[in-house]
């Protein structure tokens, strides 16, 4: 009987590793604390339609990732987003022309991880709290006290602060991961019954509590009847107001939004706030992935590489490559 490999986390990094390991003939089992896959690539279902509250779009610079994106496009899971982009700086809006190709999941961001997951074995709504080594194999303990295992190797693909607590049996890895700081981001959705009178579809914002805003329905495949907008607060603002009640966060960011838009902003018909506690790594790291091959523990995530969607995918590939290399 082959002992499977456990993968904790079904964001892009975990699924990227899972696909590579499965393609190499290994059996795997995925775990995630959420009800569905995606991590920060997930979309929230709401009365105003599906909302991309996390990653807004992604770019592909590495040829390996670009090839994966082309495959997703061929299968209809991603589409190119060509928004009318602006910059907001010093109180003025100006067009932001660039040649960058931006990709989004279609019809929502979570379409990508859903497609990657396919029919791989997965246990959702399962928060792993401990990873411990038996005589020969690994076992996992969840928040309900349930044990899962045995597993031959474990890939941990979750934000660094959460990964640290699972690395008790690998103190060297734990100390490296504990040194990674991640910044929070408050995300707010505002939906209006009638479209706002603006051509703007995306905006890079400076000198404000907001650092990005996007018109959700300008993305391909979105079919909302309402005019929905996603606002992301800056890391600094989110850090200062990390425990602020959601209603107040919505009020403050709605106010900042109204201030920078050059058009009348009615009261929104629908609002939603979501706090990403570990939205992005503070400072760049280029480690690819972390591993203790002798123990059979591997750690990956966007925080290992650039903090971008591409970085998450490449980090998962690197973790899988190291694991396969060790098993040769």
TrEMBL record:
Its EC number is 1.6.3.5. It catalyses: 1,2-dihydro-beta-NAD + O2 + H(+) = H2O2 + NAD(+); 1,6-dihydro-beta-NAD + O2 + H(+) = H2O2 + NAD(+); 1,6-dihydro-beta-NADP + O2 + H(+) = H2O2 + NADP(+); 1,2-dihydro-beta-NADP + O2 + H(+) = H2O2 + NADP(+). Residues 108-324 form the Amine oxidase domain. Substrate binds at residues 57-61, 96-98, 185, 308. Keywords: FAD, Flavoprotein, NAD, NADP, Nucleotide-binding, Oxidoreductase. It comes from the Bacteria. FAD binds at residues 13, 32-33, 40, 56-57, 128, 302, 309. It is an enzyme of class 1 (oxidoreductase). Its cofactor is FAD. One of its GO terms (molecular function) is flavin adenine dinucleotide binding. Catalyzes the oxidation of the 1,2-dihydro- and 1,6-dihydro- isomeric forms of beta-NAD(P) back to beta-NAD(P)+. May serve to protect primary metabolism dehydrogenases from inhibition by the 1,2-dihydro- and 1,6-dihydro-beta-NAD(P) isomers. HAMAP family: Bact_renalase. Belongs to the bacterial renalase family. This is Renalase. It comes from Pseudomonas graminis. The lineage of its organism: Bacteria, Pseudomonadati, Pseudomonadota, Gammaproteobacteria, Pseudomonadales.
């Amino acid at each position: 009987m082959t002992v499977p490999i456990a993968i904790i986390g079904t964001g892009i990094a975990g699924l990227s590793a899972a696909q590579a390991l499965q393609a190499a003939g290994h059996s795997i089992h995925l775990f995630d604390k959420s009800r569905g896959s995606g991590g920060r690539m997930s979309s929230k279902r709401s009365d105003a339609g599906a909302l991309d509250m996390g990653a807004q779009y992604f770019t592909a610079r590495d040829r390996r990732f670009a090839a994966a994106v082309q495959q997703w496009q061929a299968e209809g899971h991603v589409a190119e987003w060509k928004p009318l982009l602006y910059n907001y700086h010093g109180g003025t809006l100006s067009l932001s022309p660039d040649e960058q190709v931006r990709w989004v999941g279609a019809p929502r961001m979570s379409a990508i991880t859903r497609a990657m997951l396919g029919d791989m074995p997965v246990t959702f709504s399962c928060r792993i709290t401990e990873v411990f080594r038996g005589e020969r194999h690994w076992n996992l303990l969840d928040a309900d006290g349930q044990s899962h295992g045995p597993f031959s190797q474990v890939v941990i693909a979750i934000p660094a602060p959460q990964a640290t607590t699972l690395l008790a049996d690998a103190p060297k890895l734990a100390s490296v991961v504990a040194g990674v700081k991640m910044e929070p981001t408050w995300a707010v959705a505002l939906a209006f019954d009638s479209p706002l009178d603006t051509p703007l579809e995306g905006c890079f914002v400076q000198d404000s509590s907001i650092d990005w805003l996007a018109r959700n329905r300008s993305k391909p495949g979105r079919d909302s009847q309402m005019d929905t907008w996603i606002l992301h607060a800056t890391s600094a603002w989110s850090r200062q107001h990390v425990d602020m009640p959601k209603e107040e966060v919505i009020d403050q960011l709605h106010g900042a939004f109204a201030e920078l838009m050059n058009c009348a902003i009615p009261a929104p018909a629908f609002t939603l706030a979501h706090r990403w506690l570990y939205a992005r790594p503070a400072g760049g790291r280029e480690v690819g992935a972390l591993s203790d091959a002798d123990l059979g523990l591997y750690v990956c995530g966007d925080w290992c590489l650039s903090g971008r969607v591409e970085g998450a995918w490449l980090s998962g590939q690197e973790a899988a490559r190291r694991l396969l290399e060790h098993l040769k």
